[in-house]
């Protein structure tokens, strides 16, 4: 246990997939650096990285329609889908490297092969999905994409979608057999356990309550032991704030100019989880639909197979809600305490421009269990009233940031904020988040350690063979790395 005055090269705040990834990369790049990790809870990966707390899709833009929006002329823009899929391949390569070097064991404990599907009904949505297919399929990244409007074919892929559905209803589905399900909680725990074995000072039940810059350029962190109540301070040359919804408050307390103008808008959620094993056994896919009008992208409905602790489950949702907590285990004061003079105007502008979102959240909050089952029946027409339990998902804090044109915008994505002097960085936001942890941390290394990054590139390329290249532009390299990750991660 560190004493007050302990000094480290790096301190990681938060025990989720982001800190786990950065710590693991740094330990391999600079094995002699001293590293400490502080996690508020008593185990790693229990907030945003937990599979019941939203994470778990393995976001690869294969099935999430909000990553391939329709344009005004009816065409579909697949730029974001390509970028996210490129990033997910980087994560797959990095995890494969960690399996090969012994950091990760038993890949099926954290990643499993699972088809990803998009499913819609009605003429307009079916036309959109066809256009999306035609825009995506020519790209090497999406060459294995399948598409059908035939109910019999769709039933072979996912029978719950078709059983009980009117024969005359137009439906459409796109499918990738090569999708995955990822338990980022289990992945985080494996990585951090290995970090502790390799000498990283891992502290659970410890909350970082504040940080400030000393005259010597190092950061001083105030740390509280949540069990014993003991307080101490530690110093670090570099600090990463990977505390999920808790990152904004700590970033603000740092006082760096790059933090100014950022705010957060929390959105909570619930899922229906099946308790009927017969139903669970009939569905083997992640099936995403179209978001409701006014719904945030994180609320895109999906009927979702997941593997948690080696057990297969089935969920539907999310049903969005609102809480002023920034963490599932946080405080109702998180939102009001985050308001500062520098972010007040962006937050007010976001409120003014997002009345449809507010209306959507109100409708979701007031939705009864029966209404939630009715929403489920859009995907699974034969769903029974019983056999579903309502579970609370995690908190997502969407980024609010300054915008020259609008004053402030609500950003549905992740934002890497780093100090100009390279001694501190934080990650804000939500999806695709966990799935793109590896490329985000590579970018953090590039920004925060510019004088060292060139020396690290050779080693980073061993970890991630496609580093610096776009696989969509190099189909031979895509085939090579896909073959390796499929074999190593046992996804065949």
The total beta strand count reads 20
Strand percentage: 15-25%
Give the tally of structural domains. Answer: 1
What is the oligomer described by this structure? single chain
Q: Which architecture would the CATH scheme give at its second level?
A: 3-Layer(bba) Sandwich
Arithmetic mean pLDDT: 90
CATH class: Alpha Beta
What is the CATH superfamily classification? FAD/NAD(P)-binding domain
| Helical residue percent band | 25-40%
Structural class: alpha+beta
Q: What profile does the largest beta sheet have?
A: 10 strands, mixed
Which residues form runs of ≥5 with pLDDT under 50? none
- The CATH topology corresponds to FAD/NAD(P)-binding domain
Distance between the termini: 43 Å
Radius of gyration: 22 Å
Indicate the overall shape.
Answer: globular
How would you sum up this structure, described in words?
There is one protein chain. This protein has 492 residues and is an alpha+beta fold. It has one domain (6-473): FAD/NAD(P)-binding domain (3-Layer(bba) Sandwich), CATH 3.50.50. 33% of the residues lie in helices and 25% in strands. The chain is built from 14 helices and 20 strands. The strands form three sheets. Strands 4, 5, 6, 12, 13, 14, 15, 16, 17 and 18 form a ten-stranded mixed β-sheet that branches. Strands 1, 2, 8, 9, 10, 11, 19 and 20 form an eight-stranded mixed β-sheet that branches. A two-stranded antiparallel sheet has the order 3-7. β14 (302-308) and β15 form a beta hairpin. It starts with 5 loop residues before the first strand and ends with a helix. The mean pLDDT is 90. Keywords: FAD, Flavoprotein, Oxidoreductase, Tricarboxylic acid cycle. Pathway: Carbohydrate metabolism; tricarboxylic acid cycle; oxaloacetate from (S)-malate (quinone route): step 1/1. Belongs to the MQO family. It is an enzyme of class 1 (oxidoreductase). Its EC number is 1.1.5.4.
């Amino acid at each position: 246990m560190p004493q007050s005055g302990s000094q480290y090269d790096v301190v990681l705040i938060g025990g989720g997939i982001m800190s786990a990834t950065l710590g693991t990369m740094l330990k391999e790049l600079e094995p002699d650096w001293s590293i400490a990790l502080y996690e508020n809870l008593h185990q790693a990966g229990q907030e945003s990285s937990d599979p019941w707390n939203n994470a778990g899709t393995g976001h690869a833009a294969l099935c999430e329609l909000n990553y391939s929006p329709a344009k005004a002329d009816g065409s579909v823009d697949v730029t974001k889908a390509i970028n996210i899929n490129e990033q997910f391949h980087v994560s797959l390569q990095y995890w494969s490297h960690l399996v090969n070097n012994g950091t990760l064991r038993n890949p099926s404990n954290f990643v499993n092969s699972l088809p990803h599907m998009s499913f819609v009904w009605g003429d307009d949505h079916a036309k959109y999905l066809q256009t999306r297919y035609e825009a995506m399929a020519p790209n090497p990244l999406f060459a294995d994409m399948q598409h059908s409007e035939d109910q019999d074919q769709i039933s072979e892929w996912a029978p719950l979608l078709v059983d009980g559905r009117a024969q005359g209803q137009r439906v459409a589905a796109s499918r990738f057999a090569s999708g995955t399900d990822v338990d980022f909680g289990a992945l985080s725990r494996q990585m951090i356990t290995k970090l502790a074995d390799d000498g990283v000072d891992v502290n659970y039940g410890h909350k970082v309550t504040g940080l400030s810059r000393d005259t010597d350029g190092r950061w001083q962190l105030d740390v509280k032991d949540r069990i014993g109540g003991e307080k101490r301070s530690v110093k670090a040359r570099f600090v990463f704030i990977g505390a999920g919804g808790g990152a904004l408050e700590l970033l603000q307390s740092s006082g760096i100019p790059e933090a100014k103008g950022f705010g957060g808008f929390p959105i909570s959620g619930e899922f229906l989880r099946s308790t009927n094993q017969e139903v669970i056994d009939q569905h083997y896919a992640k099936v995403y639909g179209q978001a409701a009008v006014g719904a945030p992208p994180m609320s895109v409905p999906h009927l979702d197979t997941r593997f948690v602790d080696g057990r297969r489950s089935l969920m539907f949702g999310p049903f969005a809600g609102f809480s002023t907590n920034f963490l599932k285990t946080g405080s109702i004061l998180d939102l009001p305490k985050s308001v500062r003079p520098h972010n007040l105007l962006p937050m007010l502008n976001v409120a003014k421009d997002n009345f449809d979102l507010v209306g959507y959240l109100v409708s979701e909050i007031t939705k009864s269990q029966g209404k939630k089952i009715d929403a489920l029946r859009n995907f699974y027409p034969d769903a029974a009233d019983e056999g579903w339990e309502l579970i609370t998902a995690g908190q997502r804090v969407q980024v609010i940031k300054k915008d020259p044109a609008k004053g402030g915008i609500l950003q549905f994505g992740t934002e890497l904020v780093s100090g100009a002097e390279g001694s501190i960085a934080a990650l804000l936001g939500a999806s695709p988040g966990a799935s793109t942890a590896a490329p985000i941390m590579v970018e953090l290394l590039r920004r925060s350690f510019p004088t060292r990054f060139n020396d690290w590139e050779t080693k980073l390329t061993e970890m991630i063979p496609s580093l610096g290249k776009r696989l969509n532009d190099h189909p031979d390299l895509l085939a090579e790395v896909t073959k390796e990750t499929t074999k190593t991660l046992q996804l065949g």
